[in-house]
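Hi support team,

I submitted a single chain yesterday and got back a structure, but I'm not sure I'm reading the token output correctly. Could someone confirm the output below corresponds to the sequence I sent? I've pasted both exactly as they appear in my results page.

Thanks,
R.
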Amino acid sequence: MRVLLLALLAGVATAAEYAVLHNNFRIRAERHETDGDIVRLATEAGVIELSASDIVGFEPEEHVPAPTPPAFTEAVPQPPERPAPPADPMELLARAAERHGLPPELLLSVAAVESSYSQDAVSPKGAIGIMQLMPGTAALLDADPTDLHQNVDAGARHLRDLLTKYDGGLYRALAAYNAGAGAVDRYNGIPPYRETQLYVDRVYQRFKKLNQKTSD
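Hi R., thanks for writing in. Yes, this is the structure output for that exact sequence:
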């Protein structure tokens, strides 16, 4: 086999092909020409001369079309997302009451007296939001009192726990919600605090009124 590097053959370029040799070796060529028993292959490196007897045949190179670029589509402006409607405190309270086994009217009554259903309410003592959770109480309940949903849920859990502690005794549970369980335990009932006594009465009267409406 004679291999000579020569100048590229002149002429019109054709589709690339492969010269297949007896040893199954394949040589890629842009084109070839036969001169007697000599075959010249025009490759990227130059011209290779082979004996015609060394070549079994030629195979066309499979054409792989270039990928079609994606069609340009003009971006269509999307309307801005509408903000979610603000949560309804009354609905959140009703759901929390159902979730924790409380009469909805009771939780609504406590929230009304505590904050008038306002998440922005902050007491002089630092109680926060609708259920007026003290930061320490909220921490024990693993809740963020500034978050409306967590505030309502934690307040409902706290009231339920107090009712359980006092065997369903509503007055003691309400007094403990206002003044703390320690004060109720110390006085074995509603402590002699004017604020707490008024608080228990206001919540109870509101609860009784709402409960009556529900019954009617």
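A quick pointer for reading it: The chain is about 40% helix and 15% strand. Let us know if anything else looks off.

Best,
Support desk
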